[in-house]
Design a protein that fits this description.
This protein has twelve helices and nine strands. By secondary structure, the chain is an alpha/beta fold.
Length: about 280
């Protein structure tokens, strides 16, 4: 695994000198080691910034809950679901709780499988949002950095599959519905949202049974607000994303699946203590 060199506190102070206070929001569900690594890295990356950290525990009732309760530098919300619920709905309801509790005008959404090594990502995304009061979200469309060749190949194969299914439907043949071949929505593993805009327009992260943030993006774009898209390569200069780390941590993929392998490589073989030992201490 490769990543940028750790940012010293002085670098963050310079980057954050003219930035407003902001919040960072995460949702935890039964991922003790991964959540620990994410938060330890995050705390150090935020050194010098005027920021608050919010974590919602979605009824984990395990070691991860106990760990979160032990931290006096986060705002912890312990959410107890009424019953079984889809993962994306649980995540969205948790994000709505953070939105309702923080008084900050800007909220960085991160996943617990997002590992931030370079705190300058916060200054860069926030600065791009502050340039235009009509921008309501800043982030990228991809959850991993595939590079140019892999991205081109993925687009081509998805386009071919899309057109093939459309052709089958046109001929009256049985077919699965065509999937969009382009990524459409900014992903929440690392995204900056303007809570000011959400408050003014009455939007929330979860408003229907859709992936959190997708409906808000549709509504606000239609209303004349704007997004700022950042290339994946720019985002991943500062962080890494395990991708579906919660699913991997809870045995949702087979042992040989690429996401399981990435999770094991980053969490099991490189525990939080090894990754964070050379990072600067938090003042």
């Amino acid at each position: 695994m490769t990543h940028s060199s750790p940012v010293r506190p002085a670098d963050n102070v310079l980057a954050s000198s003219n930035l407003p206070r902001f919040a960072v929001g995460l949702v935890n569900y039964k991922t003790a080691e991964m959540t620990r690594m994410c938060l330890e890295l995050l705390r150090k990356a935020l050194s010098g910034f005027d920021a608050e950290i919010w974590v919602v525990d979605n009824g984990s009732a395990d070691d991860s809950t106990a760990y979160l309760r032990s931290l006096d530098w986060i705002h912890l919300i312990e959410r107890q679901p009424d019953g079984p619920e889809a993962g994306f709905l649980a995540h969205g309801r948790a994000l709505n709780l953070i939105q309702g509790r923080t008084s900050c005008d800007y909220l960085f959404l991160l996943h617990t499988d997002t590992l931030v090594y370079d705190g300058r990502i916060f200054g860069e995304l926030l600065a791009s949002c502050l340039k235009d009061e009509k921008v309501f979200v800043v982030g990228c469309l991809e959850q991993i950095d595939r590079g140019y060749l892999r991205s081109a190949w993925r687009l081509a194969t998805r386009f071919a599959s899309h057109q093939f299914r459309r052709a089958k439907q046109a001929l009256g043949l049985p077919s699965k519905p065509p999937k969009p071949f382009r990524e459409t929505y900014i992903k929440s593993f690392c995204a900056l949202w303007s809570l000011r805009v959400l408050r003014e327009t009455g939007q929330q992260f979860l408003m229907s049974e859709r992936i959190p943030g997708y409906e808000a993006q549709d509504v606000l774009l239609a209303a004349g607000y704007r997004r700022h898209l950042v290339p994946a390569r720019s985002i991943f200069r500062h962080l890494d994303h395990i991708e579906a780390g919660t699913v991997s941590a809870n045995g949702g993929y087979r042992d040989g699946h690429r996401r399981t392998k990435k999770y094991q490589r980053m969490i099991v073989r490189e525990p939080a203590s090894a990754i964070t030992k050379d990072l600067p201490a938090v003042s």
